[in-house]
Design goal:
The protein has 16 helices and twelve strands. By secondary structure, it is an alpha/beta fold. The longest helix is centred in the C-terminal third of the chain and has 18 residues. The protein is elongated, with a radius of gyration of 29 Å.
Length: 415
């Protein structure tokens, strides 16, 4: 027979004690949570308590451990508090008496698990040849993810047309990704070193660390597959979210070359796509870009595998090249020819793009009311780790007019 102490607020304690006695549980004592009879713990097998910090004190838990008394909790419990003491998950406030009796008699209760923190991720921003807006989406996506409280880094791994340094008004002679790859090859790269060689960019969402790309595309051999893979591995310890801008081409076509041991022109793109947790695939909203996207999307899926997560984005959506119902036409074309049913749409906003280029700042800093900024904010909610809340709702770095007024973008120096 199981003996138990019921330490709950009245009149609930007396009611549950009477019901448990009818099920065969021997009630040793009935008390309030603040006045548990510690001297009678030696006569009990279990104790029933509310799942609150006031009841679950360290002294009481230690006394129960010394006496070999199991602790069963009821009510809304804090998972961190319960997991700290290795206690079972709390029963509901209206739990049936038979379920309570079963929990009191259980020999191996199910322990509450501490919620795992979101995994640090690599997010690749890719798109077909042309100008679908990969770099613009990468910059805005990093900013919106940082607005949600995540520490973000932005890397330019485009070996064909690197552009992030120019878009953001940064020094393209900074060490950047090339220096990180050299240190990674020597085994001298860590999070502190990445922080040293990166360029901090102050935005309305906080500081984003930027690793600038190559200042000349002819330096592409410096971003070899082994070097870049090692660098991305260290980036997982450096930032919560690492957004990587890559070129359009990946070297699946170069497998047929004679020199298999030599460097590959597009090895950087291939490595980032294979290492990425999420691939944001961007296509422009015009027939030419969508046609290129559909051809390359099949090869992308074959490269990264069927289980990798791809978020498809149609950028620069407007009625001009597609006529009426541009979104519907894009959605039907992608579903028919690429079996793509989930698409995010970003509107075409030339004024916002021009303002961002003029000031060399992210769009959210110079045109916070832009429809494109709002579209990327919704895209960031899709890309956010599972279980996270919306990027801006409820965050300290909200995007309300009052907050934006208080937090103006830094002025751009003349010249």
């Amino acid at each position: 027979m199981t003996s138990a102490i019921v330490a709950l607020p009245e009149p609930r304690a007396t009611e549950i004690a009477a019901e448990l006695a009818r099920t065969g549980i021997l009630i040793v004592a009935v008390s309030s949570p603040e006045a548990v009879p510690v001297a009678q713990l030696a006569d009990a097998d279990a104790i029933l308590l509310p799942a609150t910090r006031a009841a679950l004190t360290a002294d009481l838990v230690a006394a129960c451990d010394r006496s070999g008394v199991r602790i069963v909790t009821m009510g809304r419990g804090e998972s961190r508090l319960l997991s700290r003491y290795g206690l079972p998950e709390a029963l509901g406030e209206d739990a049936d008496v038979w379920r309570i009796a079963e929990a009191l008699s259980a020999e191996t209760p199910r322990v509450a698990r501490r919620p795992a923190p979101p995994r640090r991720r690599i997010i690749a921003v890719w798109g077909p040849h042309g100008a679908p807006g990969r770099s613009t989406v990468a910059v805005q996506l990093a900013l919106e993810l940082a607005r949600g409280g995540r520490r973000c880094a932005l890397i330019d791994a485009d070996t064909v047309a690197p552009s992030l340094a120019l878009l953001l008004g940064l020094d393209d002679e900074a060490p950047g990704i090339a220096a990180a790859c050299r240190r990674a090859e020597l085994g001298a790269l860590d999070a502190a070193e990445l922080h040293r060689i990166s360029t901090p960019m102050e935005t309305s969402a906080g500081t984003i660390d930027v690793l600038a790309g190559l200042n000349r595309p002819s330096r592409w051999p410096e971003l070899s597959a082994a070097r870049l893979a090692a660098t991305l591995g260290v980036c997982r310890d450096w930032a919560d979210e690492t957004v990587v801008d890559v070129s359009a081409a990946f070297d699946s076509y170069e497998e047929v070359t004679d020199d298999l041991a030599g460097p590959r022109r597009h090895a950087a793109t291939t490595t980032v796509l294979r290492e990425a947790d999420v691939v944001v695939a961007v296509t422009a909203a015009d027939p030419l870009s969508i046609s290129r996207f559909l051809r390359d999307h099949a090869e992308l899926r074959a490269l990264i595998g069927p289980t990798a997560r791809i978020v498809v984005v149609a950028n620069q959506v407007r009625t001009g090249p597609l006529g009426v119902d541009a979104r519907g036409q894009i959605r039907r074309a992608l579903e028919r020819f690429g079996d793509i049913t989930d698409v995010a749409f970003l509107p075409f906003d030339q004024r916002a793009a021009d303002a961002a280029l003029l000031h060399a700042r992210p769009m959210a800093d110079v045109t916070p009311r832009s429809g494109l900024v709002a579209g990327v904010r919704h895209l960031a909610e899709r890309v956010a780790p599972p279980g996270r809340t919306e990027v801006t709702d409820g965050s300290r770095r909200g995007s309300s007019p009052v907050v934006r007024w208080r937090r103006r973008a830094p002025a751009v120096p003349a010249g």
